[in-house]
Amino acid sequence: MSSSAEAARPDGTTSGTDTLRTFVERMSLALHERGWGRMPARVYVALLCDQRDQLTARQLTEILGVSAAAISSAVNQLIDSGLVERDAVPGSRQEHYRLSPGGILDAVLRKQEAYPHLAELADEGVGVLGAASPGAERLGELAEFVRFMDGELKEIGERWKERRRS
């Protein structure tokens, strides 16, 4: 998105590029308000919306108007979370980034894998505190909720996969 693409037209309207950039900012802000890091959200939405299947760090800096360091950090976080994959291009020093094939569902399900451990730790805490204490009661409720959520997320994931197949 060059600066000429961002300028208002003589009739006062903005280009489609401006509209897209505005959407990317609004969508990433919504993700940020739900716990995402600001820059990873911007990079993720840019990758979602771009017409190309993959983008280089340079292309992401141009789209978002940020530094290469900001892109690098955000991309690494997205890779760690399973939302983005890095592809090396033979004969090129540039790496390309693309959305992971499983998308957000696979990333959510990967995070879900930690829930049973959290429930086990809460159970351990109940033993440490003694079952009659208020803290043990809260930990027990946490363990019960985590197990419930784990089961529900697995069912949601299966229903989503079935829906996508049909």
UniProtKB/TrEMBL annotation:
SUPFAM superfamilies for this protein: Winged helix' DNA-binding domain
Domain of life where this protein originates: Bacteria
Occurrences of domain HTH marR-type (ranges): 50-93
Pfam families listed in its UniProt record: MarR_2
Gene3D superfamilies xref list: HR1 repeat, Winged helix-like DNA-binding domain superfamily/Winged helix DNA-binding domain
Alphabetically ordered keywords of this record: DNA-binding, Transcription, Transcription regulation
InterPro entries reported in the protein's UniProt record: ArsR-like_HTH (IPR011991), HTH-GbsR_regulator (IPR052362), HTH_MarR-typ (IPR000835), WH-like_DNA-bd_sf (IPR036388), WH_DNA-bd_sf (IPR036390)
The protein's name: HTH marR-type domain-containing protein
Species for this entry: Sporichthya brevicatena
UniProt lineage: Bacteria, Bacillati, Actinomycetota, Actinomycetes, Sporichthyales
